[in-house]
Specification:
There is one protein chain. Strands 1-2 form a two-stranded antiparallel sheet. The chain is 44% helix and 8% strand. By secondary structure, it is mainly alpha-helical.
Length: 125
């Protein structure tokens, strides 16, 4: 947290005011984790914010023009990397469950095939 405080020079990215002390600061995800999948590997997507500003913002885009411009750039980077928002498609949870089920079924089939052919002699033609 101290490294983030130093990097941001103690300024809240949401309101532009001085945070004062590291005790009054929070880490704010530029794009909330509840909206986008994690594991993107992008740097600089966590910013310093007052606790009140962070809680008031919730999952909404920031309103301050400088913060909104930064937010828009990060969203563009995420979208360019083909990272899909969790709510991009109304049926996304069902689609994801189906994909996971198909992958698990394919893995089970591969393991079954491997176990049944393991002891059979190999013939070379």
């Amino acid at each position: 947290m101290i490294a983030l405080f130093d990097r941001e020079r103690g300024i809240c990215w949401l309101c532009g005011a001085d945070v004062g002390h590291v005790r009054h600061a929070t880490r704010d995800h530029v794009i909330p984790r509840s909206v986008y999948e994690t594991g993107c590997g992008f740097t600089n997507v966590i910013r310093l914010a007052h606790r009140k500003c962070n809680e008031a913002r919730g999952v909404d885009p920031p309103t301050r023009p400088e913060a909104k411009a930064f937010y828009d750039r990060v969203v563009a980077q995420y979208n360019a990397a083909h990272l899909r928002p969790r709510d991009a498609h109304p049926d996304w949870p069902a689609i994801r469950r189906d994909l996971v089920k198909r992958a698990n079924d394919a893995l089970a089939d591969a393991k079954l095939w491997e176990s049944t052919t393991r002891d059979q002699p190999r013939t070379v033609i």
